[in-house]
Design a protein that fits this description.
Length: about 210
């Protein structure tokens, strides 16, 4: 039986081959994804930063630290989720993604999603959230509401033939600069856990963590 890990490895290998995506020329490494290829929960961020570009893995810098702590707080770990980005290469100086870049890179995200078939997609921040709310139509992203008004809402979407629960979350990097968002983030993550594992009920094993 071909397992998800092998299918994802094949896609990553293909992308690491002769495919010339925009931004590749500026980047050190492809940042494809990490976590459990069989996970029910997929986190989708925006794009790699410097640390991610250096290591070739998403969310390994300060934002990644926050994400790890928050997962832990609601009783989840990297083993319960898969993490990928809208863009597969770091934009120079971490500038915002351009529509042409999103159009060129997201077919690879869609390939990942079709393998993983997550029950829940958590879009992290504005870019990922607008991409999913626009059902992948990049030209309609600017018509979508921003993360502040939709975070923590559960929306069933039909995305590329898959029925997915979309739950937008504040971007973990935003928490670094705005600590008042921590509380919202924790509440939203409880919603994520409940929606992904309805039978678990509320989590009595929360640990105190400090950002
Ligand atoms: N921010 C993102 O959106 N993705 C990463 O991989 C790291 C930081």
């Amino acid at each position: 039986m071909v397992v998800n890990k092998e299918l994802l490895d094949e896609i990553e290998k293909e992308l690491n081959g002769d495919i010339n995506l925009p931004l590749k020329e500026f980047a050190t490494n492809l940042v494809f994804g990490k976590g459990n290829p069989d996970a029910d929960i997929l986190f989708v961020g925006e794009a790699a930063g410097r640390n991610e570009d250096e290591q070739g893995l998403p969310f390994v810098g300060a934002a990644g630290n926050n994400l790890d702590k928050l997962l832990e707080k609601v009783g989840l770990s990297l083993n319960d989720v898969y993490i990928a980005n809208i863009l597969k290469y770091r934009p120079p100086e971490n500038r915002d993604p351009l529509p042409e870049e999103i159009k060129a890179h997201t077919p690879w995200l869609i390939k990942q999603i079709k393998v993983i078939k997550p029950k829940v997609v958590c879009s992290l921040g504005n870019y990922a959230t607008k991409f999913f709310l626009a059902l992948g139509d990049v030209d309609k992203m600017n018509l979508q509401p921003g993360i502040t008004s939709v975070h923590g809402n559960v929306k069933m979407i039909d995305f590329e033939g898959l029925k997915i629960k979309l739950i937008p979350l504040f971007h973990p990097a935003a928490i670094i600069y705005n600590r008042s968002l921590i509380e919202s983030w924790e509440k939203d993550m409880e919603i994520v856990r409940r929606e992904a594992y309805p039978s678990l009920g509320s989590n009595g094993t929360k640990k105190e963590i400090l950002f």
